[in-house]
Amino acid sequence: MNFYLKLLFFVLILLWVLGIFIEVIIPQFDNLAFLYPFLKIIYSHVCHQQPEKVLSIDGNNLLVCSRCTGIYLGSLVASLILLFVPIIKINNIKYLILATVPMLIDVILYSSGVYSYSKELALFSGILFGIAGIIYIYNGLQILLAEKRKGKN
């Protein structure tokens, strides 16, 4: 995958993550307030947005829960790193499964009542999953692009 395609993905992920923080951004750029209702609806399709699970910065809520915030922040960080580091070919799914385990354990333990919801644990497990997920997405895109090139020759 070339640099410009990776840059495009980074910019798209960055815009997505900035949308999550719109309520935090509006006090600095009040002319963006018109975006809030639109973004609230968009993010409601990808996250439950339960108020008790949403992170807050200076009294301003993010538009997704703590775990989803972690997934998107992890994806953003990984896509930034992958701009400058070659993408490692991964031929199996074990790393993605390993990155999913902390999230699954957290969900199972919380859902079974072993402990109460922890925004910090949800954020951290989401970050791990987001990093691994974007690496697998990039790998898949590399394979798709290579197959497309083969088809043209």
> How do the helices and strands follow one another from N- to C-terminus?
HHHEEHHH
Tally of separate helices: 6
Query: Which residues form runs of ≥5 with pLDDT under 50?
Result: none
**Rg over alpha carbons:** 18 Å
Mean pLDDT across the residues is 93
Terminal CA distance reads 18 Å
- The shape is flat
Percentage of residues in helical conformation: 55-70%
Helix and strand content put the structural class at mainly alpha
Number of domains: 1
The largest beta-sheet arranges its strands as 1-2
Number of strands: 2
Largest sheet: 2 strands, antiparallel
Strand proportion, as a percent range, falls in: 5-15%
Can you describe this structure?
The chain has a two-stranded antiparallel sheet. With 153 residues, the chain is mostly helical. 24% of the residues are buried. Helices cover 67% and strands 7% of the residues. It has one domain (3-152). It has helices spanning 3-20, 22-25, 35-44, 66-84, 94-111, 119-152, and strands at residues 54-57, 60-65. The radius of gyration is 18 Å and the shape is flat.
Could you list some keywords that capture this structure?
153 residues, mainly alpha, two-stranded antiparallel sheet, 6 helices, 2 strands, 67% helix, flat
Quick gist of this model?
The protein is mainly α.
Topology, pairings included?
Elements lengths: L2 H18 L1 H4 L9 H10 L9 E4 L2 E6 H19 L9 H18 L7 H34 L1
Antiparallel strand pairs: 1-2
Helix pairs in contact: 1-4, 4-6, 5-6
